[in-house]
Design goal:
Blueprint (H helix, E strand, L loop, with lengths): L14 E7 L2 E6 L5 E4 L2 E4 H5 L7 E3 L5 E5 L3 H5 L11 H10 L7 E5 L5 H10 L4 E6 L2 H13 L6 E5 L2 H4 L9 E4 L8 H7 L5 E7 L2 H13 L3 E6 L7 E8 L22 E8 L10 E7 L3
Length: 296
């Protein structure tokens, strides 16, 4: 099992996602002889998980059942242990697209945090790309490195415990893209430029406050970046449902086309598929600022 390579069967040592329902999932470290308690009963790893195909339905000791799913960055985002505030799929999808990530790309990131975006980046740049991620907090950096090894993506990522605003990313002239999610991203812009390739590249900064965006844009201008854009992504999910609308009564049909005296009852309503707007929707998460380093 790897977050960037699919495996058909659950093996000892894998991290699997146990799916109890749409709003209820949990990551499980599969170990021979171990057990996992759920509201449907016990899952015995040796007999219920190891050797089973991902996607299988597993019956628990109380008779209820769950599904065992292969881990993906999207599933990890909604199941990971929170060490910091994290980015969710709505913002992550925009970031990976606007940074033009592709297999073989080299990316610099700060800070690592809980690793939500990191896993999505790694899948985008696999199998030959590399992620250089910087985390200021020592325990978070150590935990992130441990998770990358457990998820079998450690060969593609280098974790550094340092202050990116003072010490940079630890690399020079190698990055195709840079992502900043720190309190003062404007202090790291010059280090981002240093880390990027001479052929140019893309940079993204995530900030919850517009004042942070203003300072970051000023720093980007001073460092010669171009093609600025700032946006926020708001997700509005429409509810699809069946509605029944009455049909107007136009009177009897005079064109019967024959002598059949059988009376046909009129259709009084018609069913249609319609969408309705949500009564509530998630609000502001943060501003995404993108810029391009020109070729030098």
């Amino acid at each position: 099992m790897s977050f960037v390579e699919y495996s058909d069967l659950v093996r000892d040592g894998d991290v699997a996602i146990v799916y109890l329902g749409h709003e209820s999932m949990m990551p499980v470290k599969v170990r021979h002889g171990a057990q996992t308690q759920t509201r449907y009963g016990v899952i015995r790893h040796s007999s219920d998980l190891i050797g089973r195909r991902y996607g299988s339905k597993v019956t628990c000791s109380k008779g209820g059942w769950v599904h065992v799913l292969h881990p993906t960055p999207e599933l990890w985002t909604v199941n990971l242990p929170h060490r910091t505030q994290i980015l969710y799929t709505t913002d992550i999808a925009t970031i990976t697209m606007m940074l033009e990530l592709k297999p073989g790309a080299v990316v610099c990131e700060s800070g690592t945090g809980s690793g939500s975006l990191s896993h999505a980046i790694l899948r985008s740049i696999a199998p030959s790309g590399h992620l250089h991620t910087v985390e200021f907090h020592q325990q978070r950096a150590e935990k992130a490195a441990e998770e990358f090894k457990e998820h079998r993506v450690d060969r593609m990522v280098t974790v550094r415990n340092q202050d990116v605003c003072k010490d940079g990313f630890g690399v020079t002239g190698v990055a195709d893209a840079v992502f900043l999610d720190i309190p003062s991203p404007w202090e790291a812009v010059r280090h981002a430029k240093t880390a990027m390739k001479r052929q140019g590249g893309r940079v993204c900064s995530f900030s919850p406050c517009i004042e942070q965006v203003q300072k970051t844009c000023e720093a980007l201008v001073d460092e010669g970046f171009e093609e600025f854009s700032t946006l926020e992504v708001l997700l509005r999910v429409h509810d699809v449902r069946t509605v029944y609308l009455p049909l107007p009564d136009f009177g009897p049909d005079t064109d019967d086309g024959g002598d059949d005296d059988t009376e046909t009852l009129p259709q009084t309503s018609v069913s249609l598929k319609a969408t309705t707007l949500p009564r509530e929707m998630p609000g502001h998460t943060g501003y995404l600022t993108f810029a391009t380093k020109p070729r030098t």
